[in-house]
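Objective 1b: paired records.
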Amino acid sequence: MVPEVPSRRLVLGGMLAAGAATLGSGTPASATGARPTVVLVHGVFADASGWSAVTASLLDAGYQVIAPANPLRDLAGDSAYVSGVIGTITGPVILVGHSYGGEVITNAGAGHDHVRALVYAAAFAPDAGESALQLAGRFPGSRLESALVGRPYPIPGAEPGLDGYIDPVKFHDVFAQDLPRSTTRVMATAQRPGSIGGLAGPSGVPAWRTVPSWYVVAGADRVIPPAAQRFMAERAGSRTVEVEGASHVVMMSHPQAVVRQIRAADRATR
């Protein structure tokens, strides 16, 4: 549960953690019968709004939800940021990651005894030393590389970094082909880029080695090939479902498939 700032709720990434515990209460959610806090971590080319339908369903079911703004600068820093969010929560936590957000929860979840489960939604679940770019290219089928547009950004005291965007003209067909074009047109203009350096950074010792995991494979993903998703899910020992015809944004086009896996993780780890 999230410590409550007196007289207001803690807001992270523009989303409310409803029903938070009072600061310093130290009462585990399991002791009060409350559900775990679900932390939803978005990936590159998206933001926390991509979790809206999943969030609404979880809130209706009585879960506390936090969808922080993933910085998307570098894996170590992004993971440390999300780890800091996890550290503010009293009681059990379920971490959910989409795309690059899966790599972040793989790293951020390590070392937190109250992280009960990991749920991957069309996400990277790397082993130590692997990177998102490496895994995306390990199996054929990704259309991402040919759709990327690079833009430099300043890094104080260092050479400029390079942000990766998806060409808006290709955004629908590469990222979210099962959503209406009226929706993806807006998504393309508001996409949050990811640092190419961050996507190439090596992952650390994975939390899935010690924390049980669940996986939602997007069967028609054009960013992370479904074969790569199946490989990572099997290696992590994840309990897996596959959504046929789902694009990379399976949490938007098939939110209930993701919600069912989160709730299954909750039931199995109580």
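Objective 1b, second protein:
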Amino acid sequence: MDLKQLRYFHEIVRLGSFTRAAEALHIAQPAISVAIRKLEAELELQLFQRHDRKVSLTAEGERLWLHTQRILQAVDDARLEMQELKGLSKGEVRVGIPGMMGSYYFPPILMAFRHRYPHISLQVIEGGTWQLQQMLETAQLDLAVIVQDFLPEELEARVLVREEMRVVVGREHPLAQQTAVSIEDFFKEELVLFRNGYFHRKIVDRLSAEVGIKPVIGFETNLIPLIKSIIKQGFGISTLLAMALENDPELVDLPFAEPVWLDLCIAWRRDGYLSRANQAFVDFLLEKPEPSALRVN
């Protein structure tokens, strides 16, 4: 079993096809087929179920897939670390950011980082907490912003900011006259929520479970301007981070009766290698001033 065979195996699983894997690897399909047959013969196991042009993993293949991801990531980490010892930094940061953070917290920070490190490229991926966590664990991302409450053991993290989830209603809504909103009263209303997989939705689901009330969901969207527009027109209420609610006179935001606080973290793989570029980005985030101090008027 060698690295070439494992890389071939990895691409077949990732793309679900010998043909597409061969195209991605820029090799002839017979070569990749021969390599996998040799791997199966060496292991004396069948790794794939062949179904016409599609393939799926056998139970034995599933076990090898888990090892393959770790092995190839360790090799890539070792190669990068050796390059950096020679001063050959990749100069790239791949970071995943939830939509609300990406819209209201990170823009001035990203611009300030680029100003300090103009030769480091930034690839920013927007997604839900679950999606970003999966991409981080499979090395599709180097870093990701995750809520501390949902942090798995495989990831290491540092807290960036503590933020409050606020109840958001239109100015004419009856709840707008209150000083705080109970969880029970919140769930009596029709709600505008993010789709499943986003931390916003996970928090609402957790609150729902705590009080045993099933939410009435009128709209599902990840578009924050649309959420605000729906609330302003009186078709529902929601809960958003306080940072997303500044300077909007048409909305009223209130605390929950028992305030809901979130610790938002920058996370990376615990067993992965953090490149110099990524370490610079983490250090910058942890030493940075508040985003309001970075904005250009």
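Confidence is low (pLDDT under 50) at residues 291-297. The beta strands are 48-51, 54-57, 92-97, 121-126, 143-147, 155-170, 190-193, 216-220, 238-241, 251-269.
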